[in-house]
DNA sequence: GTCGATTGGAGAGTGGCACTATCCAATAAT
DNA sequence: ATTATTGGATAGTGCCACTCTCCAATCGAC
């Protein structure tokens, strides 16, 4: 398959594919001659993954390169490959991670620390992108007057555990470590919109249930 | 409070506040003279909300203006104010909403339709941002070979319901409709990073549990 | 073989968008 | 009176994903 076909099958313009090749997001095709290269199904797949990371995950190109490097790094054992990839994934809400150090931030940090201790979570501690962004989000909520105390955080954490089990179940069905690492990245990113969209739909339902529409006044004069 | 103080207390540069005023994201302050205006606590609060929508929710300025217009629209009843605000919120993953119409997309649309029917969800049907983005996300998963079938979607949907109940419980504690609409928007946006970060932390834990690190070989020669 | 079309590669350019720097006249502070 | 500050308007900046343009090598049709 040459670039034109890769472009046609993926729906990505050739100019963009060239750009990804240049940026190292896509491995070069097999060189057939000085000006020809052949791409395989693995390029098509990688291209889909790149698009998912960048367009769905809103990941900067440089970050996507790091994540993919971890996915491809055969020298690491499975545990670390999964870990490096997960660590490199950008936080869901940049701009929260480096929040100010006010009262709200300190309270939030304490609350998150307590939660982690209670749950016994210690893989990703303070300093990890996810942890710091979580602190920032809880602080932002506090500043607007919406408390996110231990009880509420715990409720969210239980839900998160359920989601994590769902993803890991799917991961375990795969055979090779390479497949699992790629799946880990893809599912982390692509399940996010699934979850968030369903949450919004569920909110609309629950909202309509609790705050029903008033009886319709058809064609009323205002 | 004048602009300098508003800036100091919010941490937002005055140039940016001026920009928000110009764009209609922030109502003008009370005019004291031709060149002076006073801002109140409500401006500080609105400014925090604007920052949350734009920086945390990654919402375009124009969209934030629409959402805030719905929040402020006193002419609508509560049901519709909540609905308009929710509809205007941008989808969590733009670029998925307008996916191609291939086999994966059709299958995804069918799966989502079935799910909605089974759950009896009908507030936001096809055409709504959340619904269309969900279809796009399921299709993207299918193209990468990760099925998101009815069973898995249902599992996610149950989780989403739980989350929605959590948010609505908090909403019902508020007194005025105005507060509730604002809270609805703020919680929809700000709980997203909380949930997503906790999910990533949970994934790391679960992953470490299922794929433990191999016994450390300290200072090994490679 | 020859010649137009296509390919891959490299660099500069474009567009969108959130912000920001610069001015300016009017007013507040001293 | 004089200097600093404020609010307002306008134009500019920086970032970043992408896209355009050009070029030489090569492929394919005749």
TrEMBL record, chains A, B:
Coiled coil: none annotated. The keyword DNA-binding applies. Residues 1-70 form the HTH merR-type domain. Transmembrane segments: none annotated. Pfam families: MerR_1. InterPro entries: DNA-bd_dom_put_sf, MerR-type_HTH_dom, MerR_fam. One of its GO terms (molecular function) is DNA binding. Keywords: DNA-binding. This is MerR family transcriptional regulator. It comes from Streptomyces boncukensis.
């Amino acid at each position: 398959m040459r670039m034109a076909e890769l472009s046609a099958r993926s729906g990505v313009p050739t100019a963009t594919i060239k750009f990804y090749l240049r940026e190292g997001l896509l491995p070069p095709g097999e060189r057939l001659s000085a000006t020809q290269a052949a791409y395989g199904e693995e390029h098509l797949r990688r291209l889909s993954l790149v698009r998912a990371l960048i367009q769905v995950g809103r990941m900067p190109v440089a970050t996507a390169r790091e994540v993919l490097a971890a996915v491809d790094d055969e020298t690491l054992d499975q545990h670390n490959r999964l870990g490096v990839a997960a660590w490199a994934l950008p936080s869901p809400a940049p701009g929260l991670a480096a929040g100010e150090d006010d009262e709200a931030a300190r309270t939030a940090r304490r609350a998150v620390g307590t939660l982690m201790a209670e749950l016994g979570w210690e893989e990703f501690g303070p300093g990890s992108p996810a942890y710091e962004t979580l602190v920032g989000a809880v602080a932002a909520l506090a500043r607007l007057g919406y408390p996110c105390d231990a009880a509420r955080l715990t409720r969210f954490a239980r839900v998160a555990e359920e989601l994590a089990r769902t993803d890991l179940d799917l991961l375990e069905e795969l055979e090779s470590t390479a497949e699992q690492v790629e799946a880990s990245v893809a599912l982390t990113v692509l399940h996010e919109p699934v979850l968030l969209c369903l949450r919004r739909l569920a909110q609309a339902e629950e909202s309509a249930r609790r705050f029903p529409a008033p009886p319709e006044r058809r064609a009323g004069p205002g």
